[in-house]
Amino acid sequence: MLIITWILCLTLFIALTSFLGWFFLQDPKSQESLRTLRAGFQTAMKDCGFTTKRKYPVELWVWETMHDEDVCEDCLERASWPPMDIADWMKEGIPGTPEAETECGEHCRCRLVRYHPITSILKRQKH
Q1: Which of 1-31 are b and which e, b meaning 16 or more Cβ less than 10 Å from the residue's Cβ?
Q2: Three-state DSSP class for 95?
Q3: Over its length of 127 residues, how does the chain's per-residue pLDDT go in tens digits?
Q4: Pick from 127, 123, 81, 120: nearest CA to 102
Q5: The predicted structure's pLDDT at residue 76
Q6: In whole angstroms, what is the distance from residue 103 CA to residue 2 CA?
Q7: Distance (Å, whole) CA 51 – CA 76
């Protein structure tokens, strides 16, 4: 008896929600609200970067120094190199590792930062 009551309540719930959904979609104001909601969702997804194609297929990184007088010549040279993916940087050496073979060695204060073309142009204009 309990199972039959549960099935009956579930069936009534499904029927009621289906009717309310159908009724809601028949109202012109509701359809406009759905279009507005869909457009807002699509804009949000695009702004988050989920629907846009990346200009570069992989993330590119650049060598960034501390921009002061204590930066060694090797690090200054690497900061002028073009952006590379992380695999290429690992071949050349990550800042602060022995593989990098810079003058400052393990005391290197440089870092790899993700390359953003627009941000890079703005930084060059400031310096």
Answers
A1: eeeeeeeeeeeeeeeeeeeeeeeeeeeeeee
A2: coil
A3: 788 888 988 898 898 888 877 777 677 777 777 788 788 777 777 766 555 555 556 788 999 999 888 899 999 999 999 999 888 999 999 998 888 889 988 889 999 998 887 755 555 555 5
A4: 81
A5: 92
A6: 80
A7: 37
d(C-alpha 127, C-alpha 123), whole Å: 7
Token duo for residue 1:
């008896």
Residue with tokens 């007088």: 69
Report the amino acid identity of residue 106.
E
Q: Which of 71, 60, 59 is nearest to 127 (CA)?
A: 71
Looking at the chain, list the stretches that DSSP marks H as alpha helix, in order from N- to C-terminal side.
Answer: 2-26, 28-48, 73-79, 86-92, 117-126
What are the sequence ranges of the domains in the chain?
61-126
The enclosing H or E element of 111 equals strand 111-114
